Amino acid sequence: MIASSHHAAALADLLTVPQYTHAQTIKAERLRDGLAALTAHHCEASEAYARIVDALFPHARNGIGSLADVPWVPVGLFKSHQLQSIDDADIATVLVSSGTTGQRPSRIVLDRDAAAQQRTALASIMGTLLGPKRLPMLVIDTPSIIKGRGALSARGAGVLGMMTFGAAHAFALDDALVPQQEVIARFLERHGDAPFLMFGFTFLAWQALVEQLPAGSADLSQGILVHSGGWKKLIERSVSDAVFKTRLHEQTGLARVHNFYGMVEQIGGVFLEGEDGLLYPPDFADVIIRDPRTLEVVPHGTEGVIQVVSLLPRSYPGHSILTEDRGVIVHEDAPGASRRGKGFRVLGRVPRAELRGCSDVIATTASQTGA
Amino acid sequence: MTVDMEQIARQFAAAPSLVPFDARTLAFTHALSRALSSDLALRREGAVQALAFWLRPAETRRLETHLRTVEGSESILVPRGTVFHVPPSNVDTLFVYSWILSLLMGNRNVVRLSQRLSGIGARVASVVEDVLQEDAHADVAAGAVFVRYGHDDALTTALSGLCDVRVLWGGDAAVSSLRALPLPAHATELVFPDRYSASVLNAQAVEALDDAGRDALADRFANDAFWFDQNACASPRLVAWIGSAEAADRVRDDFWQRVVAAAARRGVFSEAGTVLAKMTEAARAAIDEGATQILTVSPEVTVVRLSALDALRRVAPGGGLFHDVVLPSLEALGPHLARRDQTLTVFGLTREDIMQAARVFNGRGIDRFVPVGQALAFHHVWDGYDLFQQFTRRVHIAPQGW
């Protein structure tokens, strides 16, 4: 089948390390071909997806001219529908998002290939930061987070996924999410003189390393902190990215801090912060910014809603997702930038609709059926 | 929050007994009408001015005439006593309608105001309070208590203990949880949960309109739809074109374009959150309702075209998401109706057509048929209740044998 060979070739090529090396024009063409093939594949394999494409993007079946023409799925759909393009028997892993209170979590199904590709993709991204060797790793979380019975929380899955890039793991926090100073001291005694990896959720890293750990009590100057999970709680405390980095540096000596943006709903869509403080898509993924009202693509430099695309989702139709996050592309293939492709910022969530009306419950879910 | 229940009970015990359409009540409603129509902050608010209009002497006289008609010759209508109103938190003016209808019947009233009440609703509440504080309205004020509080089952239960009628407005979940709180043995309850409403347009009649007529229709439709961000119970969420598919196709794209223009004339503006909520729901409609086409006519107007109503879920985020379907006749809507269906706004059908359809529907759904443009006009017959009768007791006096 032409469609699948297109996709396989594009993905195989783009997954090879090193990342961030393709010029955007070449990358965009390859992504377009691969994503068009994926769109055709999911239309074949998922009736639900085919209905969305036919109703919302009727022209997509006649060919996809550019990256921006690839049909997208609103991210909220994954909270109400388990979209899948594989047989139930082939489901190897189900990823579950950390739904906020009152919301149903997203459920994302992976088969063996998708799960393996997800690991490869993450490795090729992290390799650019960490080098080929596994570094000693200090996890900014409690060991209990990966021990839960049954389904892992999204935070646990994130920690477990990152742990494969480290060795000699130590967990910096106890169950109350308070720093265990003796554990940290022991880890630094053994590994603190050479580069080591740290991973934690953004808010936990701030709370533990800046708010709770006494300034100067731990020397993290050789550490590379990778953090994710969103800025919502930090924005509430008026902590910007700049404040985050400055305070971490002042109190612990930590100098290498890399945020990453991504969501459970899209495997491979992992956008890691470069040395210039901007997020960059790997070569097998990309971001597109759309006008928040017309959903048309906006020029670089204009804020809008983030669409993420990735060549990985083949087991479920999540290869092109319209998120509910706001962002802006700062530059593309910028001369002198450490990475090729689009350098962008995430600016927070799109504010929820505040509508008037009789009904107290405006948020709707598909589980409600007509009375 | 602490509320002195004994004080409310004492105040009500001392309040003078008002008869239906008491002169003191009418003096107050007319004063309130004037205050609302002259308030600088509210003068431009359509919903508030509609309320002020409804409170004018000419309107209250009509209501009184109606009361005398339904009273009949064998009974008289008297107040029920104390009515406890729990209005929805996000329709600015509804608490006044609920309260005034009961007040006109002579009842004492406790009105719960949401802590979220702000903007227009808060301003209306403050105008109400100012008028109540005038000496001339002391007798009405004695029978009126407004309590502003958030979610508090203990307080709601305590206030329920005072009442003869409890009136609950709101979403299904809120109404269900409030209904579980106990009432005095003799008390009755009126409930106004979530409803779903539609518009029925005769395709041929729309086609027969000239440009100005079509624009006027779109304006009236937009008024119904966008006044409360399409989230009022009576706001149309579905448009059913009556006629052949060909006839409907000749007018519907044009109609939606004109609705976009009408929305713009009203200053409707969909924020990003609303646009995304509509897209998400539209995508769900494609999967679950078999929507054949989703048209983003503008950021304010998204049209979900259905080929049939069999899978309609009646879920809508509001803010301008419309389902659109063609039916051969009004009666063809009947099999698809549900208890939840409240208002049909109609264009291009005769009253006889509608009467006949209402008989055919036979209570399966639809409590109200009004012309397009009048979806939000409050009437004392609402959600299948005649509120005049619900807010009174009927005292039977045998006609003979004395």
Describe the structure.
- Chain A has a seven-stranded mixed sheet, sandwiched between helices.
- Chain A is built from ten helices and 14 strands.
- Chain A has helices at 2-15, 24-45, 47-56, 77-80, 112-130, 154-163, 181-191, 202-212, 232-236, 241-252, and strands spanning 73-74, 93-96, 107-110, 135-140, 166-171, 196-201, 223-228, 256-261, 271-273, 279-280, 285-290, 304-310, 320-332, 342-349.
- The relative contact order of chain A is 0.14.
- Chain A starts with a helix and ends in a 22-residue tail after the last strand.
- Chain B has two domains: 5-194 and 385-396, Aldehyde Dehydrogenase, Chain A, domain 1 (3-Layer(aba) Sandwich); 196-381, Aldehyde Dehydrogenase, Chain A, domain 2.
- Chain B has helices at residues 5-14, 23-38, 46-54, 57-71, 94-104, 119-132, 138-142, 153-160, 172-179, 203-208, 211-226, 245-265, 272-288, 351-361, 387-390; strands spanning 75-79, 82-86, 108-113, 144-148, 165-169, 188-192, 196-202, 236-242, 293-298, 301-305, 321-327, 341-347, 368-371, 381-382, 385-386, 392-396.
- In chain B, strand 5 (165-169), helix 9 and strand 6 form a beta-alpha-beta unit.
- The radius of gyration of chain B is 23 Å and the shape is globular.
- The termini of chain B are far apart.
- The interface between A and B is large, with 42 and 59 residues.
